[in-house]
Amino acid sequence: MRRVPKPNFSTEEVLLKCISNYTDTDLVRRFKASKGNIADWSNILQKKIETNTVSTIVEDKCIPPKITKNEMVKLYTDKLAKQGQPGREIYNDIMDLPKHRLCPICGYRPVDSLDHYLPKEKFPALSISPINLIPACMGCNKLKSSSKPNSPEEEFIHPYFDNIEDEPWLYLKVVEELPLTVYFIAEPSQSSWDDLKKIRVIKHFSRFRLGQLYSSYASNELSGKIYSLKSSFEQGGAALVRDELLKQIESFKYAEVNSWQIALYTGLYESQWFCEEALKKPIDKILK
């Protein structure tokens, strides 16, 4: 879950770009007449995001007066998202916003599409709003689907507006039995955030199954690292193991506060059982 700079496009700019090759003059006229209303909805969304009141937006009202729901949705699918159409350049630019083009929702899988923060089928006036378009991987896009928040607590973390990288909240727990099992938790209770933000982070972590994703990455990481840790234990005991784990923590700490790698190596470092007991066993007993 990473922060991303907001798109540098106005809603009006996106609209005019998308309708630039329509041949239906009546449709173009109606879109231009609705330009102000569509821009207003984008401004409303931003204010709602900033005040954690997105859940109060009424679906039935989020439709421009001169444009049908289907016309708004098709504007996105046919003119913004579709390859070779005038809006596709903007679509690609938004997908390029995240650092290393990694999905800001999970933080690790590559971006391959744009997801609507509020679904276009339910909020058609926001179909092409830049702040409603979030770069995402296919996995996160599918998990979110067309869901919408029904309360402030259910509002997804928005990468353009919510900063959850300023304090640690991702931790690893070690199950003290073999074969080695670890799992990740979202635990922002020690942060200075308000209670609503803490709840939203926990729900976001659960909704997008980030614990399962990070555990999969961690298991793969450990399968390659356990030999080195076992060797360190045999040479210098738990003290040398902790030295090696600390080096791993140091190597990742400048990249991201809440990376699964930092959580993994910190959790292992803080586990007395792992450092002093688990590594006594043969490798085929330690790992699954």
From TrEMBL:
It comes from the Bacteria. This is HNH endonuclease. It comes from Brevibacillus brevis.
